[in-house]
Structures are given as structure tokens and as C-alpha cells.
Amino acid sequence: MIFTSGSTGVPKGVAVTHRSAAAFVDAEAGLFLRDEPIGTGDRVLAGLSVAFDASCEEMWLAWRNGACLVPAPRSLVRSGADLGPWLIAHGITVVSTVPTLAALWPEDALERVRLVIFGGEACPPDLVARIVAREREVWNTYGPTEATVVACAALLGGEALVRIGLPLDGWNLAVVDKSGHRVAEGEVGELIIGGVGLARYLDAEKDAEKYAPHAELGWDRAYRSGDLVRFEEAGLVFMGRADDQVKLGGRRIELGEVDAALQSLRGVAGGAAVVQTTPAGNHVLVGYIALTTTDAATFDRSLAMDRLREELPAALVPLLAIVDELPTRTSGKVDRAALP
Fold first, then answer.
1. Residues 26, 165: one domain?
2. CA proximity to 159, closest of 232, 255, 83
3. What's the pTM value of the predicted model, to 2 decimals?
4. For the residues of 121-161, what is the DSSP string, one character each?
5. Which residues belong to any copy of the AMP-dependent synthetase/ligase domain (predicted)?
6. How far apart (Å, rounded) are the C-alpha atoms in residues 126 and 158?
7. What's 91's domain CATH number?
8. pLDDT tens figures, 70-82
9. Phi, psi for 138 (deg, rounded to 5)
10. Where does the chain have alpha helices with state H?
């Protein structure tokens, strides 16, 4: 059982059954490193807070496959500066983390790591390109606690488009429009999750609301994720939260769309958009970016703004602010409220 705040900030108790947990563990065991599966010779980093459901992935990856789970000091994981020598000294070969934290780590931190799993938030293409290597698998995963940690995954190869991929074995995914009908190839809709991974809310009323039957899909139980994705046969593409919208100048703005544009900029390790209020009371859209260590000195702000103008409608182009690092919550995800 885990309490998750989700996007509302109100804790919700979620109970994951043994059946769902076992299905998740087995699905991932058949997914990662198929040619040379995780085994007794591997050492898995335990760097995430146990209050974050992704920490279960760290523990279960190790224990399901007979590998060694190696806890790291939280301060070390969050700062990143001294993590490289620590990972090498402790022989870490498997890492599951969030992109915001990984972006802080020096390039040699993953020298001996043969499997990297990202999840919890959108993954910048530049970060993927930096750590993809011939002898290393890099995966991007997606899934809410309500669907047992991970619902789908994509093997990454350094392409500009970072997908969240296809469903795990036993999970069902559908992308639907506002009427509940499946969308066509290339269209955006809400992601609906079904299958063996569905958990339940401790609050019966909340459970009935969020896990209601879906008549159009023919599912007895379906979880409405509230996340927008683009449907592509090659793998789903995350587009942002359906409820992660703010009003600016009378227009609704999807922050996830701006986040994605910021994270696609060359030399950017992580990015997040926030509507801030000026001393005069005006609302402005600000895009905060943290740069990779190798690109900090050569980053071209003017070129970045030109790229944003190409990618975004005029009303969504943010003011650009460069920060040393993006503030994070306990889960490692970006804390928008803490941005300056």
C-alpha cells in the first residue's frame, strides 16, 4: 500500500495486490537485458525514496533476479557530484531513476552500468543521447501507482523522439477521445489503462470513480490516467497532463507541451514551465532549464529561443531562465512550486 498525491496534492491510498506485483516483476524480467538477464552478478542501485513507488522497481528488480540491492545515501544521489566514483566503487550495474536526477550525474557515473531505466517524468532526448551506449540498455517507462508502477516501456536508441512505448505483458492500453472512442494513428487522447496491473483505491467512492467500467472498450474495469498521449503503433508518445493546464491572458496553456519543447533543446538536461507573477501583478510564462555540464559554457540562448518559436505557438513561448538545477520533490520529480 502506498499513498500518492498525484497531480492534486491530496494523498490517496492505493493498494496493489500480490497478483499485480508478481505480474509486474515477471513482465519486467522478460523485458530487460534479454540476451544477458539480470542475475547474481548484478548490483542494483537503491537511490529512490521508499515513499516513491519506483523504489519498488529497484527492490524487485534485484530480488526477483537474485541480484544485490545496494542503498546509496540520498544526499549523494540528489547532488550527483560524487556519485560517479561511488557507483564505480560499489560495482553498480543496474539503475532505475528519474531523468531530473540522472541529469545531475557526471558522465562517468554510469561507466559500469548495463541497464538504465527512466520513469516518473518526461525524459529529455539530450540526456538519452548522452548515456546510450552499445553495451548499455536504456529504457523509458511510464505508469502511475494505480497501475502498479509501470504500464508501458520503450527501448531507447538516442532518437530525437523519446517514446513511453508499448504495454507490459498483461497490461492493456487504449488512447481515447472525449467521447471514449479510440483515436486514430497520430492523434492525441487520454490514456486508459486496463489489465492485470490495476490496483485499487482504499476510498471506495474514489475507486468506483477512477476504476469504472469502460463501455466503449468493453473493459469491466479501467483506469483513467488523466494523461494525454499521442497514439502511434511504434509506441505511445507522452504529451502532458489533461489537468496540467493554466490560464494566461485568457488562454488555456498545457504546461506539458512547453516542458517537452524545453527538454528538446540542445544542451538541456531538464526543463519545466511555470506561470509566475511579476511585482506589478502581471502573469508571465517562464521556462526554467538546467544545462548539461558539457554545454553550460557554449549554450546559445538566442538559438534556443528561435527553436522554441519554431516548436510552439506564440502564446506558449516562455521567457527563458537558466538555473543550476531544477528543484525536486521526494520522488525526484520536478517541484514547480519551488522554482524561483
1. yes
2. 232
3. 0.75
4. S---HHHHHHH-BTTBEEEEEE--GGGSS-SEEEEE-S-SS
5. 1-200
6. 8
7. 3.40.50.980
8. 999 877 876 666 7
9. -125, 125
10. 18-29, 54-65, 74-79, 83-89, 99-102, 125-131, 204-210, 255-263, 301-311
